[in-house]
Amino acid sequence: MPLRIDILTLFPEMFAPVLGTSIPKRAAEKGLVSYHTTQIRDFATDQHKSVDDKPFGGGPGMVMMCQTLFDAVEHAEAQDPRPARRLLMSPQGRRLDQAMVLELAAEQRLLFIAGHYEGFDERIIDGLKPEEISIGDYVLSGGELAAMVIIDAIVRTLPGALGAETGAHDESFADGLLEYPQYTRPREFRGMSVPEILLSGNHSKIAAWRLEQRKLRTEARRPDLWSAYRDRKTEQ
Predict the structure, then answer these.
(1) Are 74 and 24 members of one domain?
(2) CA 28, CA 154: separation in Å to the nearest integer?
(3) 136 and 197 share a domain?
(4) In Å, how far are 71, 155, 183 from 44, measured between CA atoms?
(5) Is 199 annotated as a binding residue?
(6) 140 marked among binding-site residues
(7) 20 to 30 A Cα–Cα from 97, which one of 63, 91, 105, 138?
(8) Residue 175: CA atoms inside 13 Å, Cβ hemisphere, count?
(9) What is the pLDDT of residue 170?
(10) What is the reported pLDDT for 165?
(11) Domain membership of residue 13 as a residue range
(12) How would residue 167 be classed by pLDDT, with cut points 50, 70 and 90?
């Protein structure tokens, strides 16, 4: 069965352009993944369709209330018998990296909770026990963009999503190194030439050159990744 991705949001219309374009769209057409959005506001019970309220104790902003989130999660999860791994977009969560992307891609079902406003009533986290995930140390207006980033990162790792089975294996972070430099036609452009090794047709030498370039680029641009890579190699 395809990976099922549920998205709980106040703005489901934001997802259609992203999930209906490029790799996310092709992956769905190939039957690798299915997307299902749920409008949180549909589960509000008052005449104003309220989903948030002022925080107890005072303070700026509005806080998303428990009832609508609990009901929305329970409704979405009832649509498929497979248990969902609940993910809540939060700047306080675990920082996303490629290892986590691959971990999530191995699941059968993921449920994203994309909040808005100042934050969530803490009882949503205590009661639903979602995993909090962050895409970086900054604050967005809501969790929708973060969810899109994570979904795109996950879907492109699914076998067959990129067309070439090895497509995702050579990309940055796949093994802790950044990707090697790429070139295409023309061979010469404004005094800049394609490295001769790439024109040699010697695949073993090309592979060795690319690996060396990945190491040099990682050491120069991401010393944190380079240090971790060297430590792993030393342990092996």
Answers:
(1) yes
(2) 13
(3) no
(4) 9, 31, 53
(5) no
(6) yes
(7) 63
(8) 11
(9) 61
(10) 54
(11) 3-155
(12) low
